[in-house]
Amino acid sequence: MKRVNIKNIKLSEVNKVAGFVETIRNKKAMCFIVLRDISGKLQLTVEKANHPELEDVLAQITVDSVIEATGKVMASEYVKLNGMEMYPDTVKILSHAEPSPIVAPKGEETNIDLRLDYRWIDLRTDKNTLMFKTQSLFVNKCREYLVNNDFIEIHTPKLIGAESESGAGVFKVDYFDRNAFLAQSPQFYKQMAMAAGFERIFETGPVFRAEKFASRKHATEFTGLDLEFSYIESYKDVMKLEEEMIQYGLKAVKEVYGDQIKALFDIDVVVPTLPFPVMDLHDVYDELEKRYGYKVDESEKGDLTTEGERMVEKLSKDMFGHEFMFITGYSVDVRPFYHMRDENGVPCGYDLIWKGCEITTGAQREHRYDILKKQAEEKGLDKDVKFYLDFFKYGCPPHGGFGIGVDRLTMLIFNEGIKDAMFIFRGPDRLNP
């Protein structure tokens, strides 16, 4: 008989199920087991008088053991778990589990670093399972939105021969007889695709940052969703596409998992209205000072401070009743050389802030070779990025795009730290498991 997922069980019929043992109560006359697979949970009820041959097997079962059971599943008004139970005729232990090393004393929470040491066990919880089901749905809906809008998916190299972007925070690796670097983003190759005439592309893949941050939102390796598209008129076209994509993804999350997220995390998934509010950075600082007394030195006003970023959550809700905010008007000093600049020398780009956290930097790119080369020279990068500059020598349409962190989005949906929101966390002090 073929195993079925618990969600596909047929009542009043014999089914074969398999999964992890969540709880077991082995009484003198009865044994009750809650079995869990990726699709749901099922109570197994064994009447020992009817199945004395199962007593030895039942005595060996521990929490988190993997078992297989075959029997009739019946509806029951007395069973709270989905209103049904299985009366197994056979029970087989597929894998015996030792006591968990990450179970904390009652009322206490296990240290996050200990849980990460045994991440495969930590991931077995209902909360973690829901987080990654949600992440999968959100990414797939973003992909669906992009494909429906004529984007094609590409896969760019993560080993590169020159330090990308600023050259800071890059991992250097041995590559045969020379050095290579792990890509900080697919930025240069996304733009190469524009020069190739692909017009609309996206990629989901790993991103590497050799930065020794120790915050709830930083990691040295994470998953990025990047896209680029041609023939835009301004960076506002990029903003419009991003807000539509995010709304599309969050709408699906709310429809499919909204009730479960509310039940397990006590969080209401908010589907944002369009358009998202937009503010110039200088106006943001003016409002933060006027409304909340937050002041920064003039020398810091070219970028958004960490504290200012956190306060934007309240500002956006107070001014617009919105969870998201686009911020424009950043200084040339804090923007990459490949961002186009307007007639006043201001970069044609933005950051998107959600729940007080930056999730995106987007922009119109500079596609004119002479200007791009000059901007690279200003940053002292023209020799390092010569291969990239060559993309623009032979014709390239106007274009723009953005990158968004999948793990950071997950973190914000569930109001968790980045270590919990990533399947496997990588930081300055963690390379295992």
* CATH architecture descriptor of the largest domain: 2-Layer Sandwich
Number-wise, the strands total: 16
SS element count, helices = 12
Could you name the CATH topology of the largest domain?
A: BirA Bifunctional Protein, domain 2
The CATH superfamily of the largest domain is known as Bira Bifunctional Protein, Domain 2
Residue share in helix: 25-40%
Write down the domain tally.
2
For the CA atoms, what is the radius of gyration? 26 Å
SSE succession: EEEHEEHHHEEEEHEEHEHHEEEHHEHH
Q: Which structural category fits the helices and strands?
A: alpha+beta
Please state the average pLDDT score: 95
Shape summary: elongated
The biggest sheet, with number of strands, parallel, antiparallel or mixed sense and barrel status, is: 8 strands, mixed
User: How far do the termini sit from each other?
Assistant: 36 Å
SS strand fraction: 25-35%
The CATH class of the largest domain turns out to be: Alpha Beta
Low-confidence stretches: none
Q: Could you describe the 3D structure shown?
A:
With 433 residues, the protein is an alpha+beta fold. The protein has 2 domains: 6-95, OB fold (Dihydrolipoamide Acetyltransferase, E2P) (Beta Barrel); 126-421, Bira Bifunctional Protein, Domain 2 (BirA Bifunctional Protein, domain 2), CATH 3.30.930. The chain is 31% helix and 26% strand. It contains 12 helices and 16 strands. The chain has helices at residues 55-60, 112-117, 119-122, 126-148, 187-195, 235-265, 281-292, 306-320, 369-378, 386-389, 406-414, 418-421, and strands spanning 13-26, 30-37, 40-47, 66-75, 84-95, 152-153, 159-160, 172-175, 178-182, 200-208, 221-230, 278-280, 324-328, 349-354, 357-364, 399-405. The strands form 3 sheets. An 8-stranded mixed sheet has the order 6-10-11-16-15-14-13-12, with helices on both faces. It has a 5-stranded mixed barrel with strand order 1-2-3-5-4. Strands 7-9-8 form a 3-stranded antiparallel sheet, with no helix packed on it. α4 packs across α11 (406-414) and α7 packs across α8 (306-320). The longest helix is centred in the middle third of the chain and has 31 residues, at 235-265. The chain is elongated. The two termini are 36 Å apart.
